[in-house]
Amino acid sequence: MTRKRSMAALAALCLCLGAAAGSGQVPEEKDMGAYLMVYHKDADHGLHMAISYDGYEFKALNGDKPVIAGDTIAEQKGIRDPHIFRGPDGAFYLSMTDLHVFAKQKGLRDTEWQRDGKQFGWGNNRALVLMKSRDLVNWSRANIRVDQLSPDLADIGCAWAPATAYDYEKQKLMVFFTMRHRTQKCKLYYCYVNDDYNKVETLPKVLFEYPKKDCEAIDGDITYADGTYHLFYCSHDGTAGVKQATSKGITGPWQYDSTYCDFERVGCEAPHVYKLIGQRKWILMYDIYRVNPHNFGFAETTDLKEFKNLGHFDRGVMRREGFSEQKHGAVVWLTKEEAKRLEERWP
Question: How far apart are CA 102 and CA 95, in angstroms?
């Protein structure tokens, strides 16, 4: 096997499978038997988890109460947009937006936002939360102030929806997220972080910018399959919805595709793709934020080009037990033993 093909195979395991490459203590796809979903809820701004053994039916852990409270880990006393990734070392990497959108109502600050909304826009947070774990129970943590990485970033209007991938060309962990300067249009940015996942090593660079200058792209998610990287994101081009761009490299250049991948008539965001274990099928999951109560939508694909509508949670094959009104989810593979330990830890 050539070096290029070998790296592509490793990238496939980590990016589209949500699993780790390697042997020994690092599980491979054949070792996997369960799925872990992470999400947040507007009601508490904490980290929630749910377990599935088939990728279609998920059951809440901890009675749908947060397994990690947002006020214990975030500058704003609340987190949003959790993403979980399993690296080539077998460790779990959890990234979240440091933002509480109801902090004034909860008595956590005197203003609606941290800074003037007229100058910095909706939310206008400045920080990300990065956490690493071997067992999904004990975590290390770093609170990253993006606006303090460089004087050129002091005026950022937001740093949202971070996600993690592994760049096999550079052999580095990569965090990518939504960012804007003041109230300008949002773009997707990326930077590299150290192996301990507690320090940013490069300044953010543009990962993807929507081709129409008056529109924006948010909430990126990267999946690798058959030699191609697929960047799914939310396009704010008319009704907000899910589109994708493709590339042969993890940081681009990206080929824009104007086709919508979701099946919604109202706004949706936060796309995330996970592969079904042992099958050539992927599930595209997205947050339908314009429905009340909040719900997720799903689509299934065998080639990441054509999608079949699976409907919403509890309205088709996708089922949930013990939770509702979940927001901005992501899924990673587990072994059955890992899943059982979590169920024992948070029944």
Answer: 21
13-29 pLDDT, tens digit each: 444 444 333 334 788 99
Q: What is the pTM of this model?
A: 0.93
Alpha helices by DSSP H, listed for the chain, are 3-11, 117-120, 336-345
Other Cβ atoms within 10 Å of 237 Cβ, number: 17
Burial class (CB within 10 angstroms; exposed 0-12, middle 13-18, buried 19+) of 254: buried
The tokens of 181 are what?
Answer: 């300067």
Q: Distance between alpha carbon 145 and the CA centroid of its chain, in Å?
A: 19
Is there a contact between 296 and 313 (Cβ–Cβ < 8 Å)?
A: yes
Residue type, 192: Y
Task: List the beta strands (DSSP E) in 57-124.
Answer: 57-60, 79-86, 92-98
Starting from the edge strand earliest in sequence, which strands make up the sheet with 139-145, in order? Answer: 79-86, 92-98, 127-133, 139-145
Residues 6 or more apart whose Cβ sits within 8 Å of residue 142: 129, 130, 131, 197, 198, 199
Tokens 């209007």 sit on residue: 157
- Tens of pLDDT, residue by residue over 126-143, are 999 999 999 999 999 999
Length of the chain (residues): 347
Alpha-carbon radius of gyration of the chain? 19
Give the N- to C-terminal CA distance of the chain in Å, as an integer: 45
Q: How, if at all, do strands 57-60 and 319-321 pair?
A: parallel
